[in-house]
Amino acid sequence: MRRYAVGTIAEGATKYFYIRDCETMDVVLLPSKYLKHKTRSNRSPNTVKRAAFAICYYLEYLKEIPMEIEQVYQLDYEKQTEHFVDFLHWLKGGNHKQDNNLKSINNGTCNAYLEDVFRFYLFVEAEYEQLGSLKVLSYNYHVAANAVGVQKKLRYQSFKGYLKAEERNVRPAEHEEIITILQACTNCRDQLLILLIAETGFRIGEILGVDYVHDIDYQRHMVGVYFRDDNENDARAKNAEYRKAKISEETYEFLMYYLAEYRELLQHQRFLFINITGKTAGQPLKVDSVYDMLNRMEKKTQIDLTPHMLRRYFANMRRKAGWRLELIQQALGHKHINTTIKYLNIVDDELLEASQEFYEKHSAMYGVEKLL
């Protein structure tokens, strides 16, 4: 049995995370104080949730060694490095999970958990200056502004023991797969959800945060993404961005059909996507429920489909239609164009064909014949 567990408590529309000692049933104060600080700093609930689990796993690791947080500070540079590298391999080995049948955790996720642990240590150092600082982190600072213009003082991390990042090999959904899944769905809510992600390229958290009263332009058939920090289903627009996407006439008509079909449930709240059965009928749909639905569809059709694959489908379909790379980047809400490039299913044959076509049109661009 695990010693530590993540818990939540609601205060109005705000959800707070904490860590509980399962043996004593006490709240573990220092990490819980840190999580409360992150929530009050207006970090997204999913960001705080990931930090909560990362710290919870780290506490399990400390228990197994065994070691206390204060003792980590007393280690020299080499031993601290070894300590955190061992934690990464502990995660990689699946020791943080009780279910041995779970898929192997990738290196990027392990590194992200360790980064959350380092952020927790920085909080500890700010609270208890007498502990000093971790030797594996450097002391160089720079000031950077986030997506909404708020400046933060950031400390460079000199830790060199991160696992080598693996290339994220997510394929785009195929058009025929989407049609098959749509036909297998048992209700129009799930069908509309799939259609809107495929036609807008929105992230799952963004699409679940759509307010059907304020975020849909019913005249121009456009759906908008707006940042809010009070969505009760924890859905937020990433990077505090604002953008809109136009949908097809057919999907707009299907949206109207959905709104009419579930008008009695929808009228009591503002979210477009809701639970349609059971005791939670009428409440906002959450991400976990979407993945549960897609898992059921996979068992039914043998087709693995995820919201991220639908985003990549959107990107590749627009590229094939001739959209400029910058337009696709803007539609997807990417900060960096390199991220957009990774979404596009550009294969070597396409690059070869494009290069051949270019040189056929510009064969004499360097005047090489005069050099012979």
How does this structure look, described?
By secondary structure, this protein is mainly alpha-helical. 48% of the residues lie in helices and 10% in strands. Strand 5 (216-217) and strand 6 (222-225) form a beta hairpin. It is globular. The mean pLDDT is 87.
Layout of SSEs?
Blueprint: E1 4-11, E2 14-21, H1 29-40, H2 45-64, H3 69-74, H4 77-92, H5 107-127, E3 141-145, E4 151-155, H6 175-184, H7 188-200, H8 204-208, E5 216-217, E6 222-225, E7 243-246, H9 249-261, H10 263-266, H11 287-301, H12 307-320, H13 325-332, H14 337-343, H15 348-361
Antiparallel strand pairs: 1-2, 3-4, 5-6, 6-7
Helix pairs in contact: 1-2, 2-5, 4-5, 6-7, 7-9, 7-12, 13-14
Strand order of the largest sheet: 5-6-7
Unreliable parts: none
> What is the SS-derived class?
mainly alpha
- Bin the helical content: 40-55%
Radius of gyration: 24 Å
How many separate domains make up the residues?
Answer: 2
Strand element count? 7
Give the topology string: H per helix, E per strand. EEHHHHHEEHHHEEEHHHHHHH
Main sheet: strands, sense, barrel: 3 strands, antiparallel
Q: Which percent range describes the beta-strand content? A: 5-15%
